[in-house]
Amino acid sequence: MRPMRLPRKFSMTQRAEFARVREYGKSRPGRYLVVSVLQEPELDHFKLGFIVTKKVGKAHLRNLLRRRFRAIIQKHGDQLKTDRYIVTIARWRAVEASFHELEKDWLKQARHFGLLKEVPE
C-alpha cells in the first residue's frame, strides 16, 4: 500500500476553521495528543490541522512532531471519512514518544470518533 499524498486543499489554513472545530466539535485526549473532530456534511474531503505549541519544545522538535503527524495521515489517509474537520494537538509529552506510539495513540482516537472507513475483509 502506497502512502497517500496530502494536497494543500486538505490543510486547514483559516483561524476561523480551527475556532469552529474547537467550539462545535468533539475532543478526546490521548496519552500524547488530543484529537478534535467536527463533522461538516458540505465538505467533499477531510480537512486537517495540527497544533504544536511552544510548550512542547524547541522549533526542531515541533517540526519533527508535525512531520510525524503528517506521516500518520499520509499512511492512513485513504481510510479517512471525507466530511470531517480533524485537528491534532500535541501534548507536552509527545516529543518523548516514538512514531509508532504516536500512530497508535492517533488511531485509537480516530477509531473512537469513527473517522476510519470500514474496510471489508
Automatic annotation (TrEMBL):
GO cellular component term, pick one: ribonuclease P complex
GO biological processes: tRNA 5'-leader removal
The keyword Cytoplasm is annotated on this UniProt entry: no
Keywords: Endonuclease, Hydrolase, Nuclease, RNA-binding, tRNA processing
Domain of life: Bacteria
EC category name: hydrolase
EC number: 3.1.26.5
Gene3D superfamilies tied to this protein: 3.30.230.10
Catalytic activity: Endonucleolytic cleavage of RNA, removing 5'-extranucleotides from tRNA precursor
Keyword Nuclease: yes
Transmembrane segments: none
Pfam families, alphabetized: Ribonuclease_P
InterPro entries, sorted: Ribosomal_Su5_D2-typ_SF, Ribsml_uS5_D2-typ_fold_subgr, RNase_P
A molecular-function term among this protein's GO annotations: ribonuclease P activity
Family: Belongs to the RnpA family.
Function comment: RNaseP catalyzes the removal of the 5'-leader sequence from pre-tRNA to produce the mature 5'-terminus. It can also cleave other RNA substrates such as 4.5S RNA. The protein component plays an auxiliary but essential role in vivo by binding to the 5'-leader sequence and broadening the substrate specificity of the ribozyme.
Subunit structure: Consists of a catalytic RNA component (M1 or rnpB) and a protein subunit.
The name this protein goes by in its record: Ribonuclease P protein component
Organism: Rubritalea squalenifaciens DSM 18772
